[in-house]
Write a structure and sequence with these properties.
176 residues; alpha+beta; GMP Synthetase, Chain A, domain 3; Ribosomal Protein S8, Chain: A, domain 1; 2 domains; three-stranded antiparallel β-sheet; 7 helices; globular
Length: 176
């Protein structure tokens, strides 16, 4: 749990630099099938609301989750900075990549529940229409989450298409 402690300390220090006094609790979440194969961990970094005013909580979440998403992006980038940035990195280095989810006041849990619902609606539409469906305006973390969710559907496949900031997720039936 050395990574968990370091990640909580890092986020707590960053919040302090931003002018917020808040503690961070860390827990280890269940890994996806691809993470189990690669020894990656999924850490949940929960910012305590104790001592934060409602206005401060809203600022830390930001409009449409922009601030909390940025904190999560920074966590994933900086806390995995020990890895080479080369896309041809060795398998052993990829195995050490951890995933960090930043939570505050239930925002992330509600957001993930809405993504789960969106994924289920996409699967239903693809099955009914027999055509692919594009999910637009998702962050890379949201696209990864839906990819992982839909891995359990044997008749469905997903891939990302396009370039940022217009990258989107395609959901379609597996071609037989």
């Amino acid at each position: 749990m050395e990574d968990a402690s370091a990640s909580a300390n890092w986020l707590q220090e960053l919040l302090g630099l931003m002018g917020y006094t808040a503690s961070v609790n860390t827990s280890l979440m269940e890994a996806s099938p691809s993470q189990v194969a690669s020894n990656s961990q999924n850490y949940w970094l929960e910012i305590s609301t104790e001592g934060l005013q409602e206005q401060q909580i809203q600022r830390l979440i930001g409009q449409d989750g922009a601030v909390i998403d940025s904190l999560q992006y920074l966590a994933n980038t900086l806390l995995n900075s020990h890895l080479p940035s080369d896309s041809n990195q060795s398998e052993s280095h990829r195995q050490n990549h951890n995933f960090y989810t930043v939570e505050l006041n239930g925002y992330r849990s509600k957001h993930l529940a809405s993504l789960h619902e969106l994924a289920e609606q996409a699967v239903q539409q693809v099955r009914e229409t027999q055509t692919e469906f594009a999910l637009k305006h998702l962050s890379s973390a949201d696209r990864r989450y839906i990819h992982q969710l839909l891995e359990s559907f044997p008749d469905i496949e997903t891939h990302s298409q396009g370039k940022e900031p217009n990258r989107h997720l395609i959901v379609k039936l597996v071609q037989s």
